[in-house]
Amino acid sequence: MRKLRMGMIGGGIGSFIGDVHRKASGLDGMIELVCGAFSSTAEKSKASGKELLLPEERCYANYEDMILKEKELPEDSRMDFVSIVTPNHMHFAPAKFALENGFHVVCDKPMTLTVEEAKILENLVTSTGLLFALTHNYPGSPMVKQAKAMVENGDLGKIRKVQVHYLQGWMATSVEDSGNKQASWRVDPSKSGVGGALGDIGTHAHNLVEYITGLQVTEIAADLGKFGKGRILDDDGNILLRLENDAKGTMSFSQIAVGEENNFTIRVYGEKGSLEWHQENPNELTTRWIDRPKMVYTPNGHELYPLSLAASRIPAGHPEGYLEAFANVYKNFATHLNASLTDKKIETPDYPTVSDGIKGVQFIHAAVESDRQNAAWVSLK
Amino acid sequence: MRKLRMGMIGGGIGSFIGDVHRKASGLDGMIELVCGAFSSTAEKSKASGKELLLPEERCYANYEDMILKEKELPEDSRMDFVSIVTPNHMHFAPAKFALENGFHVVCDKPMTLTVEEAKILENLVTSTGLLFALTHNYPGSPMVKQAKAMVENGDLGKIRKVQVHYLQGWMATSVEDSGNKQASWRVDPSKSGVGGALGDIGTHAHNLVEYITGLQVTEIAADLGKFGKGRILDDDGNILLRLENDAKGTMSFSQIAVGEENNFTIRVYGEKGSLEWHQENPNELTTRWIDRPKMVYTPNGHELYPLSLAASRIPAGHPEGYLEAFANVYKNFATHLNASLTDKKIETPDYPTVSDGIKGVQFIHAAVESDRQNAAWVSLK
Amino acid sequence: MRKLRMGMIGGGIGSFIGDVHRKASGLDGMIELVCGAFSSTAEKSKASGKELLLPEERCYANYEDMILKEKELPEDSRMDFVSIVTPNHMHFAPAKFALENGFHVVCDKPMTLTVEEAKILENLVTSTGLLFALTHNYPGSPMVKQAKAMVENGDLGKIRKVQVHYLQGWMATSVEDSGNKQASWRVDPSKSGVGGALGDIGTHAHNLVEYITGLQVTEIAADLGKFGKGRILDDDGNILLRLENDAKGTMSFSQIAVGEENNFTIRVYGEKGSLEWHQENPNELTTRWIDRPKMVYTPNGHELYPLSLAASRIPAGHPEGYLEAFANVYKNFATHLNASLTDKKIETPDYPTVSDGIKGVQFIHAAVESDRQNAAWVSLK
Amino acid sequence: MRKLRMGMIGGGIGSFIGDVHRKASGLDGMIELVCGAFSSTAEKSKASGKELLLPEERCYANYEDMILKEKELPEDSRMDFVSIVTPNHMHFAPAKFALENGFHVVCDKPMTLTVEEAKILENLVTSTGLLFALTHNYPGSPMVKQAKAMVENGDLGKIRKVQVHYLQGWMATSVEDSGNKQASWRVDPSKSGVGGALGDIGTHAHNLVEYITGLQVTEIAADLGKFGKGRILDDDGNILLRLENDAKGTMSFSQIAVGEENNFTIRVYGEKGSLEWHQENPNELTTRWIDRPKMVYTPNGHELYPLSLAASRIPAGHPEGYLEAFANVYKNFATHLNASLTDKKIETPDYPTVSDGIKGVQFIHAAVESDRQNAAWVSLK
């Protein structure tokens, strides 16, 4: 095993998610940032690289440059993979170019703006054999992994009902008009795609439902809201869900839910038991049972499945949070990549891949379509 | 002011809700139980009355008997009002008969099986001038009243989003087949009406949304579930809500949500603030704000509106629960009735009335209709 | 079984605790208030009685009158027992007089001002065979009873450690100087006795520790605080506890803990498991285990002991609170009294008695003595 | 600013706290691990270094070697500071040697076994002008910093009462006898010093009280427990606290509190307001007020002081935990060291220093002395 070399696309100094990716990828000592095309201009990119203590020659003006030049470096120093942390409209092109030039890819979500783009990436991944990780970070949480394992092992029985909501309030007013960069690209269809909050956080909710239950969402009826003045894209949504095996549910997401910070909550009900998880206090998994008192699981605590235990770094009672969950995506990707570099086989790697990316983009488009039809049912297939 | 005399219809010994009505009506010393037609047979009714320490001659064989005989008693001893605590299909006839014979009515929800019946009762209430209370008990909670007052006073700004769920798990298995009386009438359309969980708890959710927000639910798209083996009526439901003033929301209710006891939760989001209330810990009202930290209100605590203060009996920190909230419906009804008996005028009384009853029945039928149409939007008007 | 007749001493209209006793004693339909000596003057007593809808002739000028005159009434109408709800200094004399005249007694805590008085009452109870209930209400809570039963059944193993605190903030400022009647007698040694917060709430904490653990507190080291300006009696205290069987612990109580409403919390640690209960959300009992996840018990929920089940009136998830717990003391007392009136034997009745009263008074005096000696250990025996 | 170079003493692979120090020091990209003397033998040390991807020549056999050889390296590659993560008895010697040889020091707590040793280090720090950080990590939490700032700014008024407990259960059984290395040195006085749980976690509690309140603990009365079979050192303790300005309080700590994971909780009561913080859900600071509802602060949320804002890395609602708090100690130390290397002045750095180390060791010895005298008061001065 060796330390993997990462090149970053996007994520200049000041970027929220770029910094998250850097801290998360570095946490376990398995990955180091070696180069980047951090910004829209060569100057800004270099300035960012300097603050990150990178050598100037590896701070590139754009992703094409980076990919082509890194490709020419000796094998033992060139980057192993790119991490794409740009706004949505800038995921597809660099991901495609990286794959075409032999680099593995870590890419933020939603993967692409269109389903067509998403399928092109999937084909490239298949044809090249390169690895592709999509950074849905919430499945990285130890208690989410315990939830998945409990469902998978049948502890809850057949799943009947799912409730998920992802509520934020930071866009309750027109923050995009007062210089909030995080907001301004999110409300712009040319950068965000057809979905607003839908793509930004609705996709996390969709992904989490499928990750934990192991069931596909098969059709949805979506009623989207555009509450912010002059907004073209949704900033709120309420969705009826139907899943495989006759399960039903609701999803609600919002970026105008005043006062909510990052309230991402899921409840799953089976025939024998149920579970509940709150992202804002991620170190508890509450379970309820047909014949026993409520039980609350904790990371590295009692009666956990291996999938969950593998995701904790420190003893029970020492809280891990958002960054650590995010780091688990990188950690599992890095473990897979290291194995693949040395031809070792490992178990099905536990991180979101290009196929999760396709499903996310399909979900966005289905929700928009359903909303256009006044919340008629639209199939996700 | 004098102690009001109550005659009970239904609620024989062993009944859950009959006992609740007795304890709730008696809590504040304003009402005493003086007679009853507790059960389907004269014998059972007398047995119940005996346990309740009532004189034998005022334990009647059926509601007609009770109403006709009490009517003949001297004014200073005959019952003032009936309290109807029977299963759903036995609400309409006794309510109608009581009104026709000059008795005020307290009635459990849902008020009737059909909208037509509901309107007949409304007409009778109007024409007789008698009082009619519907026992939606949750609006009786001090923190629900604070929530209503905050919205009414504009503290939250214009309401944009509502989320409500009412989740129980006690019917997750086929308890109706193993002698659970509470379950057996609820799954029987001839007793429960067209709605199962919908009528039983969905109506509470609908009522609470309208009570707190002051907004009418205008249209709904409902996807009902029948998870229990052989069930004809819904035991689960997911509903998209549209309200007056362009607010939107979701409702979910269930009696098959394994492990949930009585998880009735509401969240309301306005332009400036939001609030959250959980029935299972009813003595907290959590509020979130656009520019301040989260604030948690408590009964008899700081910065409460009079509507809320009036609903607490004991100092802050001494929890009141389900029975006390229920008792507030009776207390406000009794205050109104006492005022009406002495021709005093009082402010608009704060308890659910016959018009809330109509809305509840409309909601049930609209949801069933929407579900029949595969969750198409159905208007509630 | 018949309805028991209660005469109240103290508790005129406007009294906090008098109203609590009335609501609590009436909740289960086993007790009715038939007479009272509610206030310090005959007029006020009558006024209170009128509001309570009592006949004028049974509203007495003072407790001696009430006891002597009720004694002369026919057996089937005179009161069965007195309920003493006056400030501390007015407990002993009426309790003694009632017992001497053949009436059973319910008495608020602390039972008396001195240990000598307490022992006189104990002797009277023994010699007369009359019943005596002390209204420590918190042991009435279903989850406290579950806690006691779990310890008793050895579920937690040998008890090692106890933490209890009872924190209020309502006396953080000098409220006694601005007409707060609840405060003014509590800060007055002639009415409150040698303990302030100590007697008012410290005794509840002491009682709860012994009720749940089944262990006697054997010695204490107390550091009392007098934070309010000019206060003679403690308004805060911190105590080291030693209990039977080598258990240790801490107690903290306060009426100057700003912002706390009625935060009464206990944690008990055994060799195999531990438990935690919060009065402000009394419907959860959290348990932690050496080899299992945290489990949370709820009233009328799964895996409860009979002692707990008997204390719930309504289904799981329907919160009961302070009044219902208080009512359980009256209910168990009434059940015992009814049995005793008909010579039935019942199991050891589960309500606090005169011997708990003695222990409480001993605890107060020991704590004051320890504090005088700069927190030296003082034995409670 | 440049990346600082760290040499680690102790913390071989498998060590809990060594891994924590590595992740925490690396999180913000300001520090890199360049060398180490990780274990008791040269071989083990090299093996650990290899796993950490360090060059073999910088994996030293012992701390003397490391310090002497690093000293000879060119200034631009030798380590800047040592991080000492060994058991307690191995803090003093390497810290002293590092300071004597011109290296800055980060050291785990408790700083030394004796007060004399502690003062020697303090003198060395003073005489050399080198920096010294003690890794009490809990003050690194954003909500603890908010708590400190609120007290400092007088928001709570004069402090009257403090309650702190630090409860763990992992040593409830004799885990030291079954090969648990974390336990075995902790129960051994030659390695742990005179305090067991006292030194391990009691010192954290003591430090947090002083950090938040800004008040010195002036005297304590300690009742220590040795519940585990054959234990020589305390595994539990209950302590009465007296602080400057007439504040009082309690401390309780335990490693035999079955089922508790890392329950470190503090409550501070002033004349105007109070606050409460729980380490296990560190992203909430609950405050209570004399005239307002309870308010709950969150990292990067509303109305925070700069001291708190500076300690958060990600937006509100994205939980940070133990590692991030720990990383804040390193971050502030690194900022200070970088400034000191370039002769910049910065504000009083916000991390625990050698003087906190002395106080911690004094606290341990005072508690042991008090316990020997049957919980007599012992001064901390």
TrEMBL record, chains A, B, C, D:
One Gene Ontology term of the molecular function aspect: nucleotide binding
Alphabetized Gene3D superfamilies for the sequence: Dihydrodipicolinate Reductase, domain 2, NAD(P)-binding Rossmann-like Domain
Pfam families given in the database record: GFO_IDH_MocA, GFO_IDH_MocA_C3
Domain GFO/IDH/MocA-like oxidoreductase stretches: 144-276
Span of domain Gfo/Idh/MocA-like oxidoreductase N-terminal: 5-134
Entries under PANTHER family matching the protein: CONSERVED EXPRESSED OXIDOREDUCTASE (EUROFUNG), OXIDOREDUCTASE
Name this protein carries in UniProt: Gfo/Idh/MocA family oxidoreductase
Native species: Gelidibacter gilvus
Taxonomic placement: Bacteria, Pseudomonadati, Bacteroidota, Flavobacteriia, Flavobacteriales
